[in-house]
Amino acid sequence: MNIHTYEKTWLAVAMVLIVGFIATITYGAVGPGIAMIDDDGGTIDPDTINDDERFSDPGVTHVGGNEYEAAVVAQAWAYTPSEITVPANSTVTFYVTSRDVTHSYTVAGTNVNTMVVPGQVSEMTVEFDEPGEYGILCNEYCGAYHHTMEGKLNVVPEDEFDLTELSTEAPDEAQLGNQTTINTTVSNDMNYDLETTATLEIGNQTVEQDQTVEQDQTVEQDVTVPAHGSETLEFAVDTTDFGTGDHDWTVTVDGHEGSGTLTVTNATEGGDGDA
Ligand SMILES: [Cu+2]
């Protein structure tokens, strides 16, 4: 049988194209790991997101080694949290769900691009090798302010990353001679216990651990914050030897700082006639 030269050429071109298509799809799946988001993430009742262990306190947690989880809740028209920070050289599994309508979770410049359907948890795993900043946006029209729905992903150098958070709570004012407390809560979202020292500084003197702060002093307390937990420390402050006026204080834990000012007033001040 004689096949025309043109016919042979077209057959050859078609063959090359078919093999090429199969090769790109195979490469995409095996190489960069492009995959469809399936139902691995499971389902969730959008009305009880706040009771869910993963989504009631969304954000980044350390799973182990260089693996992290990022839980994100989408709703019109914001992501919670809007900003995600992970270390370089990490593998991050995103779990995203929606509280109201269908959104998307798209990390510009990466393979992360999924629909976020209420009732469904979208799960995807990404490796971040290099530090960088990525924009996060919603690709799925979700209402009047759809265009404002955005977030940010920071991949920071490993030595700049940590999952410790510090918050302090203290009164602004105390009467001279009274005791007061400065409370510090340290939370730890890592997979291991954080053993560290908390320091309260009022002025610049240093005293032994666990003493009551009396005047211009620094006290230290050892603290162990359990993995995925938090610990509250109480620093007792006795104002007897403080002068009246403003006293700046700083609590330092593991490189994090909280600070404030304690105003010590005369016992007779502010009593409005009871002196
Ligand atoms: Cu949206």
UniProtKB/TrEMBL annotation:
Keywords: Copper, Membrane, Metal-binding, Transmembrane, Transmembrane helix
Membrane-spanning intervals of the chain: 9-30
Compartment(s) where it occurs, according to its Swiss-Prot or TrEMBL record: Cell envelope
InterPro entries: Ba3_CcO_II_C, CcO_II-like_C, Copper_CuA, Cupredoxin, Ig-like_fold, NosZ/Cyto_c_oxidase_sub2
Keyword Membrane part of the UniProt annotation: yes
Keyword Ribosomal protein: no
Cellular-component GO terms for this entry: membrane
Pfam families: COX2
A single GO molecular function term of this UniProt record: cytochrome-c oxidase activity
Domain Cytochrome oxidase subunit II copper A binding: 63-167
Major location category of this protein: other
The name this protein goes by in its record: Cytochrome c oxidase subunit 2
